[in-house]
Predict the structure.
Amino acid sequence: MTESQGIHIGKVIRHAVVFNTQRWPEVRFRMDDLLDVVNDLFDLLQNRRISYALVEGIALLRYVQGRNTEDIDLILSVRSLKRLPEIDIAHRDIYFVRGNYQGLQIDVLLTSNPLFSHVKKRHVVRQDFFERSIPSATVRGLILLKLYALPSLYRQGDFVRVGLYENDVATLMFYHAPNMSEILAELTPFVSPQDMSAIQDIISDLKQRIARLRRDRV
């Protein structure tokens, strides 16, 4: 079994829930049931022939070790989401949906957002997990999504997620050495000039942190 096939999505989510004591009162299933729920979700997507892409925390585990996550993040079209009435929608805005599938939190990025559609079309490959082979975002796709989100998270003052997203981008940069100039050029049509300026500052800061870390390791 390869390292990627060893990533058991159900167990990753179960462990994250177990160690988050704030979630205990709201958990509506036994921990052992969670493994079946995750598998049922991907069975449902496959049987309905839903076109989707796995993104965020679980997809990141293919490239970065030790990332905790309690939910499943997918890119879907509005049409595909309508074909999944089993997902109970709790919150929705123009490009994002938060839902619940048998007690499992599902976060959906809608392809009505041009960047989300772009990532789904251009930056998704099939990856082997313990459960099955799943269409998942590439390193480049994950970086595009996280950089796109960061200016908005700064404006919201959501510094917990800012820290997580910046760390995710920095870790992907450190271990996979993507061409950041190309990524920024690809991202430019999807963000405002003000947001691009902020993103460039973020990348510059992350590059300096990585350079310091590499110097210290010598």
Q: What stands out?
A: The radius of gyration is 18 Å. The chain is about 55% helix and 15% strand.
